[in-house]
Amino acid sequence: IPVDVSPSAIEYEGRPADMAIIRDITERKKAENAIMHAKLVAETANQSKSEFLANISHELKTPLNSIIGFSDVICNESHGSLNEYQRKYMSNVLSNGKHLLNIINDILSISKIEAGKMELHMNEFFVSDTINEIKELMEPIASVKNIDMSYGIDIGMPAIKADMIKFKQIVYNLVNNAIKFSYQGGAVKVGGNISDDFMHISVKDHGIGISAKDQENLFYPFFQVESSATRSYGGTGLGLSIVKKFVEIHGGEIWVDSEIGKGSTFTFTMPTAPLNSNLQDISISFD
Ligand code: ADP
C-alpha cells in the first residue's frame, strides 16, 4: 500500500516519551480531497449555470419586449383596421408574450438568488396601501372566475421597513395562486396584522388544496403538484421558491396549512424593521 508520509498525511499520537503511533490516513486524505474537489466543481457549475441563465434571460427579454410593445400597439390603437380574427390572434400574441416575460423574469430572479446577487432596497411603507394596489390588480383576474375577494388588514398597522417591490411580489404570487387554484365562484381572503414586531400576512383560499406529501416540496424551484388537473393550470413552479427566498432574506418565515379539496392558507411573517443581523450576505440599501 503506498503510504504518504508527508507530515500532513501522518497522525502522531505521541506519549510515552519516545514512542509514537503512526497511523496511515492516506485513504482518509484522499476522500477529503475528493470531497473538496467535488464541492469546488459543484460551486463552479452552479455559478456558471446562474451566469448562463442571467445572460440568456437578458438576451431573450430584448426581442420579447418589442413583440409585447408592438402587439400592444396593434391591439389597442388600430381600432377598425383589424378584423375580428386579426384582433383575436394579435391579443393572443400579446398575452402569450406577457406570459413568457413572466417566466423569464422568474428565471432571472432564481438565478440572482442562486448566484447570491439578490439586493434589498428597503423603504418605509404602509402594508394597507400596498395591499390596496394588489387588490386593484387582482380584481379583473378574480372576476373571471367569479371569486369573492376579501381583505382583513388591521387598519391600525404602523408603517413597516421592507423592500416594497419584493413585498408586493410575494403577496401578488400568493393571491394569484389562491385564485388560480380556487374553484369557480370560490372565496379568497387576505389577512394581515402585526404582533411582537412581526407582520403576519395570510392568504386563504377554499380551492383544490395540497396533500401533506406535496406540501413538503412546495417551496422547491420548478415543483408543481403532479396531476393532470394541476398541470392544466399552467405556471412555471418557480413562484413559491422565489416567494420563500424573498421572505427569508427579510428575516421572515413562510408556511402552508392545507387540506385536499378544502383549500389552503399560506402565511408569512416579516420583521417590521429588520435588523442588519437578519440580513447577512445581502446587498442592502435604505431608500
Ligand atoms: P406555479 O403556480 O407557477 O406552478 P408555484 O411555485 O407558485 O408555481 O406553485 C407551485 C405549485 O404548488 C403549483 O403548481 C401548485 O401545484 C401548488 N400550489 C401553489 N399554491 C397553491 C394553492 N393555493 N392551492 C393549491 N395548490 C397550490
TrEMBL record:
<feature type="domain" description="Histidine kinase">
    <location>
        <begin position="55"/>
        <end position="274"/>
    </location>
</feature>
<feature type="domain" description="PAC">
    <location>
        <begin position="1"/>
        <end position="37"/>
    </location>
</feature>
<protein>
    <recommendedName>
        <fullName>histidine kinase</fullName>
    </recommendedName>
</protein>
